[in-house]
Amino acid sequence: MSSKARIGIALGALCISAFPAYAKDTLQPYVQIQRMWDDNLFRTETDTRSGTVDISSVGVALDWRYGRQQLTGHANASQVRYLEFEQLDYDGYDLDLQWNWQTVNGISGLLGCSESQTQSSLADIQSSLSNLRTQRQCKAGMFANPSGKWQARLVISDIQSSNSDPSRQIYDSQERGLEATLGQTTQAGNN
Fold first, then answer.
1. Using one digit for the tens of pLDDT, what is the confidence trace for 166-189?
2. Which one of 50, 111, 183, 190 counts the least CB within 10 Å of its CB?
3. Is the pTM of this model over 0.85?
């Protein structure tokens, strides 16, 4: 697990420890162990080798409410081991934290970030090469409903994707977006 993942899990635990009275209602820790068998692991017509995969995961889910505010998220660390193809073994993680906020005058919004690291789909790679894909996404949004009839929405987002295999780094990407909408709801409920 990377240092970023460890820092994220530690920060999440620190935030939760600040609110111990709510912890029993808002935290859901979990452990998951799976064994899977695939009869065409690499998803090709020519290389139809099968494989057994063991997946162990540990994590915690968060859903904390205080008045009109809501904090949701999860932290998950996983260990994936291939019995027949050890070169594909990896340790992954999935972190997500989002604040859904609301004011008394009909204005609401969100602020959140997530990051995950996992093996690229073997159907995409179609070989026994290992490629860890890291994806980060942050977004902020504000929504206004000044009357029951009109709505305004503004969302800013940033998505980054990177690959560990040098031959796949050509597919690394970054997308920045801005979405602004103004809408009206009719009496029939159409927008």
1. 988 999 999 999 999 999 888 887
2. 190
3. no
